[in-house]
Amino acid sequence: MAKCGVCGKKIDIIFLGKLLGTYIKDKKGKKHAVCFECQKKIPDKEDLLKKIK
Ligand SMILES: [Zn+2]
Fold it and tell me: Residue 4 — very low, low, confident or very high, per pLDDT cuts 50/70/90?
């Protein structure tokens, strides 16, 4: 189960292992899951990365 790196909400997996959201990579190449709602709220990837704990 993936958790959103911004709001901490669980992200539902839809079919074929796809997330209802996205993965973004930070500068170290580490992947972070971000839910659809946070993605919609913060469309800019750099801003999203800043919000991830
Ligand atoms: Zn979220």
Answer: very high
